[in-house]
Amino acid sequence: MRKITIMIFISLLCSLSISQVFGAVTMDDTIGFWLFDEGKGDIAKDSSKNGNNGKLIDNPTWVNGKFGQALSFDVEGPFVKIDVPRVQLNSWTAMVWINPFKTKAGHFQGLIQAWPNGGEFQIDSNGAVGVHPVYGGSLKDKEWAHVAVRIDNGSSQVYINGKEVIKGTVPPVTFVQIGIGDLYAVPAGFNYKYTGIIDEVAIFNRAIAENDILEIMNKGLGKIMGVTEVSSSDKIASTWGKIKS
User: Fold this and answer.
1) Could you tell me if residue 30 is inside a domain?
2) pTM of the full structure
3) What does 79-122 look like in DSSP terms, one character per residue?
4) 227 by DSSP, 3-state: which?
């Protein structure tokens, strides 16, 4: 009888859906997320259900990334431009893997810019990271780092490699266009370009939990969001952890 019970339990674990396994973050929470795994072409596919595909401007190059492929911005100029339905948010989350060529560039470097106002997720001139006006931590040249910002009703928390580095207060953000790799990729007229590699960009329409940020960082955005294949062992380990807790 015990053997039968164990077999049924294992079968149940293996049959659980990815969304059940990986918990709280769902497609409904996304404005968009871009894995940059195409490896060619001039379109960065939005892997969410929203269809907010990005247009590659001035030829960023496809390279190996933190997870799969990525985009390299070798000179100050290339960026990814994304048109999105207009939305104003007091709470949101953004995250990205970056490998910056030069962190202390003497000017701001845009990672994710929401136009027409707010949402300047960027590296400042001294190598700190955050959303204006809250910056903290320190990045290193030519090293991968996972950077994230979590905004909850204007209260900002900035994370580098899963660790909170600063708190503060930021204004609401309005999304109409998004620039990846450029602080003002759209009509604001500035030229604060990022140089380095970018991978796994995500923007969520709410303040997701710190544990979800860590899980995405460790396992990869595609796996957590259910668009990349997950092994049975990963499913069982994650579900067993939830059952024990």
Assistant:
1) yes
2) 0.82
3) EEEEEEEEEEESSEEEEEEEEES-S--SS-EEEEEEEEES--EE
4) coil
73-119 per-position pLDDT tens digit: 987 778 898 888 788 889 999 999 999 999 987 888 888 887 666 67
Asked if 87 and 204 count as a contact pair (C-beta separation under 8 A), the reply is: no
| Structural domain boundaries, residue 80 | 22-228
Residue 137 has pLDDT above 80, yes or no: yes
Number of domains the chain is built from: 1
**Strands of 129-131's sheet, edge to edge?**
43-44, 54-57, 79-89, 173-180, 109-117, 121-123, 129-131, 134-136
> From CA 20, how far away is CA 26, in angstroms rounded?
10
Region label for 15, one of left (φ > 0), alpha (ψ between -120 and 50) or beta (otherwise): alpha
Write b or e for each residue in 24-45: b if 16 or more Cβ atoms lie within 10 A of its Cβ, otherwise e.
Answer: ebeeebbbbbbbbbbeeeeebb
> Is residue 41 pLDDT above 90, yes or no?
yes
The kind and range of the H/E element at 138 are: none
